[in-house]
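From the pipeline queue, job 12 of 40. The input is one protein chain; the requested action is below.

Action: predict structure.
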Amino acid sequence: MYGLVNRAMKGLIEKEHGEACWEKICRLVGFEEAEFISMQHYPDEVTYNLVGTASQELNMPAEEFLEALGKYWILYTADEGYGEMLKASGNSLPEFLQNLDMLHTRVGNLMPKLNPPMFECFDITDNSLRLEYRSTRLGLTPMVIGLLKGLADRFGKKCVITVLELNEDNGTYASYKLEW
């Protein structure tokens, strides 16, 4: 994953628990560098280890931590220079979700090793839709729920998210119902 993800994790932990907590987590996982570089690609294991260690140190289930990270990600990426790209991706929650793959394609031009998930919307109505998520990575569906909650907040919607299906046999497939 790119350093941008790990920098977001740092921002969330420092905001909620302080700089010393983040530094301890980095020491525990053996991350010796001063800072993650946003546009640098890091092995996925680094991110997974940070999540696991943060979960232990914060006495929080990894799923809960990932959901909080997903929600934080929406604010973080807008502040890190991707705000205009986010704005251009849609004026409503359904429109934005329908354009997620296109957004990832644009980001992929900046990050050539990007391995983004894929999203597809179905059954779109005035107050609901079904979203399918596919990824080669395992275990990140709680982060997706956090992202969806963060996006709902961004568009001023109170959103109920229901997991309809989850399969991690060969990569991840999840289906969600979003109602607002």
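Job complete. The mean pLDDT is 95.
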